[in-house]
Design a protein that fits this description.
The complex is a heterodimer of chains A (238) and B (301). Chain A has 238 residues and is of the alpha/beta class. Chain A has 10 helices and 10 strands. The chains are: A alpha/beta (238), B mainly alpha (301).
Chain lengths: 238, 301
């Protein structure tokens, strides 16, 4: 469904991605792991068209993606819940969700979608009229994910959805992510919480300073000694 | 009382004009964090385009005063919007990825270019809209004769501002503009074509500025190629008083500034008119450094 071939991205003189190869199949839940600065977010931003690709190609269902502009990427059915949530703080929850459906023309479908999201996140329903900036971190995360779902994506990019959330909330967000995936949405999940991500995902990629160092089925990575010592801390917290 | 009524209506008319220009500054700032220093010169351009259409071409004599004014307004706004669009494409878009300072320098360059272009096309001497271009009706307010034109200018400004406010807050495109002002990256992730939003903002602002220029020409007659400097500075001041980036703020700032100026000129001294204006700016910034209506930090538009 999605394929990255030799992807390179540079920020000025610094190369952030040194030729990344990655592929995601239809219906899969794939996670990208790695430390800060490994290039995970950059990868997602490159897919969404928010950073320029300096070399390599991105294909989505056979169509070249990296030459498109960001709004065209959304129109093809790829949306993102970005790192740091980036909800529109001064706008209400309902307005944020409406913006998520900006690319959608079919009004009845948008209304159905909205209902689905309010069912998925009842907290958002309760706070429809509230300014997004005044929501708690967890609620903002729900809003960011809900907003990304409004465009009926076929591929959803989630960047650190667990960041800064209480453990209980993390579990609930991850359950929701699984539910979204089961509803047929292909997902790329970037996470620092490697254990939770690998338990959820079908497959995983491990990145280090701009390149891929490991890939494989999630349960295999979960039991890989190297992954365990580097990303899982060697101890079982749950 | 006589002076009060005259200066009140005067101040509201001038204030409406400042507010219209201020909206251009504030919208561009809201979305791009750029002070478009060339905006005042687009206002001048509007005044000159109006002169050419209404006076040189004598549109009024051809199709009647009413239709001529209506058509003139539309043409001036449309052509100013076009000029704004060309300016954005030529001078700002290529610099989108450079530092903000480059864009500011480019804005200053556009300002100098426009002033000189207007001077070369229409001459350095300045022009005067004829006093009999429009019929000069006078209506009594509280027993004082007030030129109808003043009220028309004020009401037109208010109408345009209310329309813009509704457009920004109610329409789909308006929501895209607000989202782009808050977080351009996030707006792009929503599927908003931010480049198009910016282009639109650079057309709406100049259209309003051009209309203001036309109204100044029609009301006060005299126009010069450098008139945009002072009007631009005043309107910019109005935008800051209201809280730059904030649309209602620009409207309130503009009207307030117009009134301060008019009453200052009448009750203190005409010579001190501009000094009073900027004194008020300093006073307001000392008390409220972010202007009158900024508050919710990212409210922007």
């Amino acid at each position: 469904m999605l394929e990255l071939k030799g992807l390179k991205v540079r920020y000025g003189p610094v190369e952030a991605l040194h030729g990344l190869d990655l592929s995601v199949g239809e219906g899969e839940l794939v996670t990208i792991l790695g430390a800060n600065g490994a290039g995970k977010s950059t990868t997602l931003m490159a897919i969404s068209g928010l950073v320029d690709v300096s070399a390599g190609e991105i294909y989505f269902e056979g169509r070249r993606l990296d030459t498109l502009r960001s709004h065209q990427v959304v129109e093809l059915g790829i949306t993102q819940s970005p790192e740091g949530r980036r909800v529109f703080g001064p706008l209400s929850v309902a307005e944020n969700l409406a913006l998520g459906a900006y690319s959608q023309k079919d009004k009845p479908a948008v209304a159905r979608r909205l209902k689905w999201i309010y069912d998925l996140f009842p907290r958002l329903d309760e706070r429809r009229g509230q300014m997004a900036g005044t929501l708690s971190g967890g609620e903002q995360q729900m809003l960011a994910i809900g907003r990304a779902l409004m465009a009926e994506p076929r591929l959803l990019l989630l960047d650190e959805p667990s960041l800064g959330l209480a453990p209980l909330l993390v579990r609930s967000i991850f359950q929701t992510i699984r539910a979204i995936n089961r509803a047929g949405v292909t997902i790329i999940l970037v996470e620092q919480n490697a254990r939770a991500a690998l338990k959820l995902a079908d497959r995983g990629y491990v990145m280090e300073v701009g390149r891929l160092v490991m890939e494989g089925p999630a349960d295999k990575l979960l039991h890989d000694p190297q992954v365990q010592s580097t990303y899982l801390g060697g101890i079982e917290p749950n | 009382m006589e002076v009060f009524i005259q200066q009140l209506t005067n101040g509201l008319a001038v204030g409406g004009i400042y507010a219209l220009i201020a909206l251009g500054y504030t919208m561009v700032y809201g979305v791009l964090k750029l002070i478009n220093f060339a905006h005042g010169d687009l206002f001048t351009l509007g005044a000159y385009l109006g002169f050419t259409i209404l006076v040189s071409f004598g549109l009024g004599g051809r199709i009647g005063v009413g239709p001529a004014v209506a058509l003139g307004v539309m043409l001036v706004m449309g052509l100013s919007a076009l000029a704004g669009h060309i300016m954005e494409r030529a001078a700002y878009r290529p610099l989108r990825k450079s530092g903000r300072l480059s864009a500011v320098v480019s804005a200053l360059g556009v300002s100098i270019f426009l002033q000189n272009a207007i001077m070369l096309v229409w001459g350095a001497k300045g022009l005067a809209y004829p006093a009999d271009l429009l019929p000069r009706f006078v209506i009594p307010i509280a027993g004082q004769p007030v030129p109808l034109l003043r009220l028309v200018v004020f009401l037109t400004s208010i109408l345009v501002m209310v329309g813009l406010y509704a457009f920004i807050n109610r329409s789909r495109v308006g929501m895209a503009i607000r989202a782009s002002a808050i977080d351009q990256g996030a707006a792009k992730l929503m599927g908003i074509d931010v480049r198009q939003v910016i282009a639109l903002v650079f057309m709406i602002g100049p259209a309003l500025g051009g209309l203001a220029g036309l109204m100044v020409g029609v009301s006060y007659g005299q126009i010069t190629f450098f008139m945009g400097q002072l009007y631009g500075l005043k309107a910019f001041t109005a935008a800051i008083i209201g809280g730059i980036g904030n649309i209602p703020g620009a409207m309130i700032g503009g009207l307030l500034l117009g009134l301060v100026e008019a009453f200052g000129a009448a009750y203190v001294s005409v010579a001190w008119k501009d000094a009073i204006t900027f004194f008020v700016l300093i006073l307001i910034l000392v008390v409220r450094p972010t202007g009158l209506l900024p508050e919710r930090v990212a409210e922007k538009l």
